[in-house]
Write a structure and sequence with these properties.
The chain is mainly beta. It has one domain. The chain contains one helix and eight strands; from the N terminus they run ββββββββα. It has an eight-stranded antiparallel sheet with strand order 1-2-3-4-5-6-7-8. A hairpin with a 4-residue loop joins β3 and β4. It is globular and about 35 Å long.
């Protein structure tokens, strides 16, 4: 079952597909990232973006940036229709993962969609 990802305002931004890679697609259907070893979040371009721990996405500084419906700090809104899922491109070699940042309760300043787009290819 897919997991919907929300930003700090409770808006739908992306979802985690139930495929082999745990690919993450923006709500419009563009593939941008994937989960590696359950908690590492990598961009399709190979860049280590952050961590997915206890249903929360953390950025490189340990700030919370993405949420599932059960962890979102705001009421989640009604889901709008998803865009057609695009083909997952070949995954680029992964960059070395940095040490796990000190996870905080602070919310990141960056928008979740912009954060995930950092992993996009082309």
């Amino acid at each position: 079952m897919e997991k919907t990802l929300y930003d700090k305002k409770g808006d739908t931004v992306a979802y985690i597909a139930t495929d082999y890679h745990g690919a993450i697609f923006l709500w419009d259907g563009h593939p941008v990232a994937y989960l590696y070893e359950e908690d590492h979040l990598y961009g399709i371009n190979g860049r280590h973006l952050g961590w997915f721990i206890n249903e929360i996405i953390y950025d490189q500084e340990g700030a919370r940036i993405g949420f599932t419906s059960s962890t979102c700090p705001a009421a989640v809104g009604k889901r709008r229709p998803k865009g057609k899922r695009m083909v997952l491109p070949e995954l680029r070699p992964r960059w070395a993962a940095p040490p796990l940042a000190k996870l905080t309760f602070r919310e990141a300043d960056q928008d979740l969609a912009d954060f995930l787009n950092e992993g996009r290819v082309g």
